[in-house]
Amino acid sequence: MRRRLTPIVLTGPPGSGRSTELRRAAHLLSSRSHGRVVHVNWFDDPAEIEPGPFLFKLARYFFEEWGADVDRVHPNPALVEDMRASDPYLAQGSGRTLPPQIIAGIVFEAYAKAYKLDRFALFLDGLDQAPPDRARMVLHKLLEVAHKVDLVVVVGPELTNGTASFEVLDKYRLFPLQSVRTDSGSDGLRWLRNIALHRVGESKLPSRKVGRLISTAAELSGGLPRRFLALLADAAKYSDRPDPGVRQLTPAADDQALSLRQSLVDGDRAVLNAADGTNGLEVPEDRKTRLLNQGMLLEYPDGKDVKVHPHPLLRRYLD
Q1: Dmax over Cα atoms in the chain, in whole Å?
Q2: Coil, strand or helix: which one is 9?
Q3: Cα 243–247–252 angle (5° rounding)?
Q4: pTM for the model
Q5: Which class does domain 8-176 fall in?
Q6: How many beta carbons lie within 10 A of that of residue 259, not counting itself?
Q7: Within 13 Å and on the Cβ side, how many CA atoms surround 70?
Q8: 156-208 pLDDT, tens per residue?
Q9: For residues 245 and 296, is the Cβ–Cβ distance under 8 A?
Q10: How far apart are CA 107 and CA 125, in angstroms?
Q11: b/e for 291-313, b at 16 or more Cβ within 10 A?
């Protein structure tokens, strides 16, 4: 982002930390280089998202934020009228009726000028909740204004896997978040442990018991931060002590495993067993996309290659 090698799509399995990475990048950029980073996360109904109206709504988001800023010169009356006339929901006013990509480009330029910016960074979260066909159309529509902003969009793995992904990857830079290794002494294990300590306000492990709990939860999570934290939280609920141990993690893991198992369909077990430890290229495209998107099949870096493995919580159902 600092080198403006955009637009970018950020992808990864559910719970891999896509939104967290986005917030972290936004914080670093706003404090170091861009000066202004806008992080947008709203979708009234992801299943009904329409590319054109969405682009206008995005422009209106900036327009209204700008207009409400008492420290900035407000939008000129002509632009206000153009926004009203171009609104696909109201279509009122005496201004020009402009297509969404045109009015969005005008607003983005005027917004940057008002804040004395050459360009600004736009981080768009939540598109992974939209159906793949609609999300793909939105990505295409965003390309029409990508020359006006430094754009990063979070999408689900179904848009970046398989033959249909080429139309996305051809125009965007792909930044995939993968599951982390949780072997003893690994960077991934230290990272997850630091996340857990940060959540409870500790700087170091309070006991070996808690250390074993964290290591076991990290292994069972498959290296996914959200699953890892959920396991720890559930273990605490099953404990009558303030420091739960591995024993309390067992029923927590059973609950999480059951939720994954319920997503298995006929043929999944055979595919997961056959794909274990491979690059996953032999897995049928539609099944692989679904398994990745549901977090049942995980990708791990392996040197210059990527290997896939079933989620650890599923292994008991695959033997």
Answers
A1: 71
A2: strand
A3: 90
A4: 0.81
A5: alpha beta
A6: 11
A7: 0
A8: 888 887 777 777 778 899 988 888 999 988 999 999 999 999 988 888 888 88
A9: no
A10: 20
A11: bbbbbbbbbbeeeeeebbbbbbb
